[in-house]
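Cont'd.
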Amino acid sequence: MSEQYYRKLLRKSKLSKKDYISILLTFIRRSAREWSFFKTSFIFNIVGIVTGVLSYYFIKLMLNPSEIVSDLIPYGGDFMAFLVVGIAFQQYIDIALHGYYEGLANAYWSSTLEQYLTSPLNPLVFCVASVIWSFIIRSLNFMLYLIFGVVLFGVKILFTNVLPVILIFCVSTIAVSGLGLLSASTFTLINAKGWEDPIRWAITTLEGLVVGTYYTPKVLPTFLQVLGLILPQTYALDALRRLLISGSTSEKVLLVQFFIPVDPIIGDVVALTAISVIYVPLGYYMFNKGINFARKVGNLSKWV
Amino acid sequence: MKPAIEAINLTKKFKFTLPHPDSSYNSMWLSFLTSVIKRRKEAEVVALDTVSFKVNYGEIFCIVGPNGAGKTTLLKILSTILIPDEGTAFVNGFDILREPNNVRASISVIPGAWWITLDWRLTVKENLIFWARLFGYSKNEAEERANYALSLMNLNKFENSYPTTLSSGYRQRVALARGLVVDSPIFLLDEPTISLDPISAEGFREFVKGTLSLKLKRTILWTTHILSEAEKLGDRIGVMKNGKFIACGSSENLVSNVNLDTLEVAISGINADTLEEKLLQFKKSFDSKVIVRLLSYNDGIAKIKVAGADRGRVEKIVSSCLSNSQKILEINELKPSLEEAFAFYAGEFQ
């Protein structure tokens, strides 16, 4: 047999876009299958959303239901609507922050990481592919939060700005994914294999304080408001609330909006895009660096 | 023609953290606290030490070696999972360091005990199709390849079962089928018959030798610690120990190159009831580096094999163990077995 014979047997060394799409769909189907194994978790999920919305309703009752919160006027003034949108989005965007780490960790602990690496797949692809289903489910959860808020507790939500909302979801997912990849890189780079890592811990801690999930960033001291500007969630929450809550105005809230003479929502999109341009390449670089580092030290499998 | 696989001075060292010396149960918490503030000692193990070898296209090359010899590390490097510290290798003509994508497109990797990586969420057939899709096979091609692999491994009746419902032997067969779903010019198999029953293992070996190698002319790199497997399969055998190749050649060459006294001693007057005891006495009388083994026993005549001692010494030591009614009938020279050759290369007789 000639060398040519063996060269002909060579498979594709790089996959086409079509291949990647079909691989993503294959992963989604597999995740859907896993999800369907645990049907009761769907019911628990719904119960969790309803009780979550109910608790915000009681908070609103305590604060006086008829009162417009002056600090929330840019977002329509209704504290319950403010909370529902904020918490629903926070639960969605958490996937972008820790999904990649968990995808990598699951592959590592199930010993499949090495086997994936013998395929032409870029490791990033299976990390992304393994979280897509979670994004789909969390998007549905987001919608359920809004629907339960409207139907059960009369929260005033606008369902007319669908396309801009989808745009904000996409841009913020990309921006936070940069941080998520940075978080995933610690799994191999600094051996953070205990389902927690310093990047995620720092961002989650900071996020709870400065992005404005539970209160408007306006109430924060200036230095915390400035810190909030480095996190994409700050802009995403601002834009989503303006787009989704009835009665929102174009009054400026975030510090950066006072310096940019455009509509706050456009400013948020620009900021999210700018942040993506920094975080995504950085995250991608560090993620690949982590995989290569693991290839060098033999850290890709729990069994060397 | 270039070789299918060429390794040049591959070296790989692993560092690992040693457990704290006081990590007994009683001082666990103390040990934990000290480990937080004090960096634990690291040790280094040389998994591969300047390994060089070539495998020709269409050849079955078996690597044998004891546990920890570096076989799996070598396969991981050749499959681009690990990056060597020094040296490089060419697989199907592609450099593992510079052209890893082409290397991956040239190989099918089947590690041992691979069934642990089967997806419990998918049926046997779905597992195979899923794997084929990762390699860029279209839906129809993947289905076709999965059916082919299922029939090869005799798994058709389990195609709709979940791997969790199968025994570990069957799971390993599914894992092998998954490896065979992806066709390549070069197959890297790491102890693939682990967990298989003898009939399935033999069937798989026959498939590799008959179909993959002889019919399809694929190149096979097969690691094992079962010498008979290597002897049956390998066109050539590489013997590894402590991260090094200590010998390489066909099984006949490996045996004929061994400079080892191997003798067959026929002894009469041995009682069947005391045979085991007598053998033990022989073994104890020689030093531990000499192999003593019973070849046959018939009508009071025991034939034993002694490897690693010269004729004079064997005669003297065996005679000293015999009673008046027992005597040495004859001593003949034998060819050493592959097992003895392996022990010889591994330095067991020195």
